[in-house]
Write a structure and sequence with these properties.
A hairpin with a 6-residue loop joins strand 10 (about 255-260) and strand 11 (about 265-270). The protein has four domains: about 5-140, ibrinogen binding protein from staphylococcus aureus fold (Roll); about 175-290, Helicase, Ruva Protein, domain 3, CATH 1.10.8.50; about 305-465; about 470-594, no CATH class. Strands 15-16-18-17-19-22 form a six-stranded antiparallel β-sheet, with helices on both faces. A five-stranded antiparallel β-sheet has the order 5-6-7-8-9, covered by helices on one side. Strands 1-2-3-4 form a four-stranded antiparallel β-sheet. It is about 40% helix and about 20% strand. The longest helix has about 50 residues, at about 290-335. The protein has 13 helices and 22 strands. With about 600 residues, it is α+β, with helices and mostly antiparallel strands. The relative contact order is 0.06. One of its GO terms (molecular function) is ribosomal large subunit binding. It holds the Pfam family NFACT_N. This is Rqc2 homolog RqcH.
């Protein structure tokens, strides 16, 4: 969700508690649309990030130290001139809007004490960071300059008077009583949808918060206003007022919403969102900044994973399409080659009937003594060859076809193995949780000769990622491979012969190892390990996924097999459904054991 008035309220409260009255020691601009302020306050150091990104505008305290450009941008130089060494005297939110103002006192070149104001407007693509002289209300500069050609209402340029963003005619939710709240709806079009009416009528209320108000009032958010009773309006007011009272009394509950498997961040808020409680995991924090840092870090990671995997996915999909077409062509070739038995019979029949064949004949009809009913067969002839040469020609065709069948079967098996290999790669791309996972996949494809090595800037070798590690409810360690080479290393090098090996049956996926330490592995641990194997496979969204398991000593790698490919024997099969709740429980086992 974008930052709404509720989240901004929590941010301002936290900044007042931590950095207000602090000294700005350094100013950096690591991105075109982002500034960092290093602040010393009450014996502690803080890094405040303010971003005017069109996609991720935000303000919060961060622990992430980004690399800065070798030459600071002009806006950064101006900020250093006016703010560095200054003292923060006030941090405020204007009228529950998504606007934060930070007042900084500092001495100018003449030794006079002045107040500059940093205005952070969090408004999607219109977000901006503006520095003004507070006494004169004049703009010194902004991270995004907006001329009159782009915005007739207000120019954001040095020397211009700062004008507040245009009023949207929304009510300040902190200043309403019940009569004002209910009365406001009476002036709206009665065909309007409830939750939309909430977020378009009140300042700082986002669609997510509007849906939460409806949930707490136990009313369908898509209800038309005309269908809402007076009792329902009472319930809506109580839900609305309860949230606003928590804002007034600063009873924030910073929280992050994740999917059940804890792989992706979904949302965040400064209040508990009850309409999410059965769908996702809610993780509470003691700091709204920690929530925002976690959310935007993982959101950025998800976006970078998506972008970095595009070319890999495209290559794999293209390779699979070629292999499917190759299999189809080989199938057709095989059907043709399987006519080889007809060639042998033609040769035999011609040899037995040489005396019946006239020189220069284009065909000959003879009795087919291989046919149980003794029917005749018409055999095509080459007019340029003698009868015996025609017979030998069919025998040669027969020999070539027999050889071709063997070669076609070899190529079919090779293509099928390649398809399995690429489908495995696709699973690992889907399950990547960090950039290094994709780098490992790319490295493997380069090593296998499928991709050319890129010419890139020299970087420190980060090394390969490690297998995922979990702890079963019985206390056994469970390891999950994240790519083919890791699967090989896990199964063939790291695991002991008495450890348990698991893999989805005939479905691409990860190798899973249960470290047994020479103990009998309990059924519950086997079930949990099988659930992980199913989840980290192509069948993760299926029900009753078959998972084979056996001791590692029963698993071996054939000579010349591709990475991740093994054969096994003496196995059992268990059927599992890898639901998010089950995976979540296994992850909690891991957390509780650490």
């Amino acid at each position: 969700m974008p930052l709404d008035g509720l989240v901004v309220s929590a941010i301002v409260d936290e900044l007042n508690n931590k950095v207000c009255h602090g000294k700005i020691e350094k100013v950096y601009q690591p991105e075109d649309d982002e500034i960092n302020l290093l602040i010393r306050c009450m014996g502690k150091n803080y890094r405040l990030v303010a971003s005017a990104s069109s996609h991720n505008p935000r303000v919060h305290i961060t622990t992430i130290n980004k690399q800065n450009p070798s030459s600071p941008p002009m806006f950064c130089m101006l900020m250093r001139k006016h703010l560095q060494g200054g003292k923060i005297t006030a941090i405020e939110q204007k009228d529950f809007e998504r606007i934060i103002t930070i007042d900084i006192e500092n001495y100018d070149e003449l030794g006079s004490l002045t107040t500059k104001q940093l205005i952070i407007e969090i408004m999607g693509k219109h977000s901006n960071i503006i520095l003004i002289d507070k006494a004169q209300n004049k703009i010194l500069d902004s991270i995004k300059r907006i001329s009159g050609d782009l915005n007739r209402y207000r120019e954001i340029l040095p020397g211009k008077t700062y004008i507040h963003p245009p009023d949207q005619g929304k009510a300040n939710p902190l200043q309403l009583n019940k009569e004002d709240f209910i009365g406001l709806f009476q002036h709206l079009t009665q065909g309007s949808i409830l939750y939309k009416a909430l977020y378009t009528s009140f300042q700082g209320i986002s669609p997510i918060t509007a849906m939460e108000i409806c949930k707490r009032a136990e009313v369908d958010e898509d209800t038309a206003l005309v269908n809402i009773s007076s009792n329902t309006y009472e319930a809506l007011w109580h839900a609305f007022d309860h949230i606003m009272q928590s804002m007034k009394h600063k009873n924030y509950v910073p929280n992050l919403i994740r999917d059940k498997a804890e792989h992706h961040v979904v949302d965040f808020s400064s209040i508990l969102l009850k309409h999410y409680e059965y769908l996702y995991n809610t993780i509470t924090f003691d700091s709204i900044s920690r929530v925002l840092e976690d959310y935007y870090f993982h959101r950025d990671l998800q976006e970078r994973l998506k972008q970095k995997s595009v070319d890999l996915r495209k290559f794999i999909q293209h390779s699979l399409e070629k292999l499917y077409k190759k299999l189809q062509k080989l199938s057709e070739d095989l059907r043709d080659a399987e006519r080889s038995e007809d060639y042998r019979i033609y040769g035999e029949l011609l040899t037995a009937n040489l005396h019946l064949i006239r020189k220069g004949a284009t065909e000959v009809e003879v009795v087919n003594y291989y046919d149980e009913e003794g029917n005749t067969v018409l055999i095509p002839l080459d007019v340029h060859l003698s009868p015996s040469q025609n017979a030998q020609r069919y025998f040669k065709r027969y020999g070539k076809s027999k050889t071709a069948i063997k070669e076609i079967h070899r190529q079919v098996k090779e293509a099928q193995n390649e398809i399995k290999y690429f489908e495995n790669i696709l699973v690992f791309i889907e399950n990547a949780t960090e950039i290094q996972d994709l780098d490992d996949v790319r490295s493997e494809l380069i090593d296998e000769g499928y991709l050319k090595k890129r010419k890139e800037k020299t970087e420190k070798n980060k090394g390969r990622t490690k297998p995922l590690s979990f702890t079963s409810s019985d206390g056994f360690e469970i390891l999950v491979g994240k790519n083919n080479k890791q699967n090989d290393e896990l199964t063939l090098k790291m695991a002991s012969k008495k450890d348990l090996w698991l893999h989805t049956k005939d479905i691409p996926g990860s190798h899973v190892i249960v470290i047994s330490k020479n103990l009998d592995v309990p059924d519950k641990t086997i079930l949990e390990a099988a659930t992980l194997a199913a989840f980290h496979s192509k069948g993760k969204l299926s029900e009753n996924v078959p998972v084979d398991y056996t001791e590692v000593r029963n698993v071996r790698k054939p000579n010349g097999a591709k990475p991740g490919m093994v054969i096994y024997e003496s196995h059992r099969t268990i059927y599992v459904t890898p639901t998010n709740d089950k995976i979540d429980q296994i992850i909690n086992n891991k957390t509780e054991s650490n």
